[in-house]
What we know:
Shape: globular
Structural class: alpha/beta
CATH class: Alpha Beta
Distance between the termini: 38 Å
Strand content: 15-25%
CATH superfamily: NAD(P)-binding Rossmann-like Domain
Radius of gyration: 17 Å
Strand order of the largest sheet: 3-2-1-4-5-6-7
Number of domains: 1
CATH topology: Rossmann fold
Amino acid sequence: MTPFDLTGRTAVVTGARRGIGFGMAQALAAAGADIIGASSQQESGGGEIGKRVRELGRSFTGHAVDFTDRTAVQQFGAEVRDADILVNNAGTIRRAPAAEHPLEWWDDVIQINLSSQFVLSQIVGGHMAERGSGRLIFTASLLSFQGGVFVPGYAAAKSGVAGLVRALSNEWASKGVTVNGIAPGYIATDNTEKLRDDAERSSEILGRIPMGRWGTADDLGGAAVFLASDAAAYVTGTVLPVDGGWMAR
């Protein structure tokens, strides 16, 4: 046993089907946790992430959850309220200049990236607080600190996530529940495909990253395991950048 061992614990990871959520779920399973994965199109058997988790010797249960539907999120929360770890990772992004940004895009981004995460935390985190233990981890963003360009809804939601980390940590720290966030840098996922395909913009981004490369989903796994583990028992209310040095530049 080590402080990073998650054997015997169950982790709920939203947005686990691909990208950053996939990387986090895989790392948590490798550390010993059983995984409950939820995405809008998550297969009950888990698809690729379910296969990978089972190869690591852990169990995987998949749930298809529409994170724009508050009732669906509440129902899911009631089903998984006994989890030891909740990773609020499900998210979306819409790109358009603020003056032209469709309001339905704004509503969807705020609902998926912020409101649904509060609803799920209220149910699962509230139950953790009642029993005196638990770990909440949010996927924040560099735009929790910065404004970005052409993504007003995303920037607002991710700034809200950072505030939610602090607010919930203040309420639940004395009840044995830690609440933290991970702020990924520029990670090679579907959400950043357009940026990576734009040679000029990609070059600008890489020019500011001291490590000189785009991050991968696997780069987020270690931070997730740390914050979920006993090694982080005295860490709460923080948003940890995993960004190749972007924020230090």
